[in-house]
Amino acid sequence: MARQRLSPVVTPPVNLLFIVLPDTLLLDLAGPAEAFRLANQQCARQGWPPAFRLRFAGPQAQVRSSVGLTLAELEPLPATLEPPTWVLLLGRPGDALQVIQRQPAWLDTRDWLARTLGPALAPLDTPHRLLTVCVGALLAADAGLLGQRSVTTHHELLADLRRLAPAAQVRANRVFVQDGPVWSSAGITAGIDLALHLIAQVLGEGLASAVAQVMVVFHRRGQEDPERSPLLAGRSHLHPAVHAVQNAVVEAPAEDWTLERMAAEAHVTPRHLTRLFRQHAGLSPRAHVEWVRLTLAREALAAGLSRPRACALAGFSSERQWRRAAARHPAPAPGPEGPPADAAPS
User: Domain containing 316 — which CATH number?
Assistant: First the structure.
């Protein structure tokens, strides 16, 4: 029997408002935008409504991007924000002296941010978010939106961000950082990492992993791990059957993932699935299930959940089963390594 996938509740869809200025770095715009578009595409394949509404606005209706391509038909900066709205501030080429020239487009956007977005972010239960990529953090700082928050930006601009936001906690060597409704990323490809992380928050790890697979993004990185998430261990491959099983397990780790059921998910025989996992993921299908459950349990414990609750959410039938799995897989040191292939049951 096919496994039924329940639709996440995303009502109304999230308004993604990309703020486009002259010389906007095209990859800072296109990378996250494609990730969110592909998330909607995955939703459609599941029979779900779109989770994101992509909008593009700016102080000018038409601008040239960093590569010379003209971006036209931009919306004006809105007078109000329809909840929930995530405002994305993007990068521009050059050093701080070049990008912070406070020309009319920058000044108009800075004033709009202070007037419209600033008050919208103030309530503790705000549905709105501020997302910055690269230089976008400097624009947010110039608009007075960062305060004492933890933030990051491209490594070449960290000193300039500290100068513009002296009260903020500027963090180096981070792909992205969250502090309340403010999410800041280091720039360029880090904007894609941030988008994938937010897609996972809204739609689940399985769907976000499917988007990463389509984008050929192997090593998704988290805000505290500059390398990649432990959930991505054994995913640096392109085999669709193995990816299908890996996505299914992450989506529903508490289900009874027998070898036969995983093989049915991949539409291959159990023996062939074991060969595929060994070849492409470096571990057995059952070892992958155990690794995913252990990772989820550790994350739940770190978030403050009780041990029984963390074990149940991760799919362990008892604390004893969890302890046995943990003994086979000691918590790894930060880095790209996954579970040893010979440390888990086959």
Answer: 1.10.10.60
Residue 177's SS3 state is strand
215 within a domain of the structure (yes/no) = no
- Among 1, 45, 2, 11, CA closest to 202: 11
Report how far apart, in Å, the C-alpha atoms of 68 and of each of 148, 160, 266 are: 36, 26, 44
Give per-residue pLDDT as tens, 159-175: 999 999 999 999 987 88
**Domains held by the chain: number:** 2
Q: How far is CA 233 from CA 172, 202, 209, in A?
A: 25, 22, 12
Q: Are residues 264 and 197 in the same domain?
A: no
Domain-embedded: residue 8: no
Residue where the block lists tokens 């936001």: 165
**Per 3-state DSSP, what percentage of the chain is helix, strand, and coil (rounded to 5)?**
45, 10, 45
Contacts with 334 (C-beta within 8 Å, 6 or more apart), sequence order: 225, 227
The whole domain housing 307 covers 231-328
pTM: 0.68
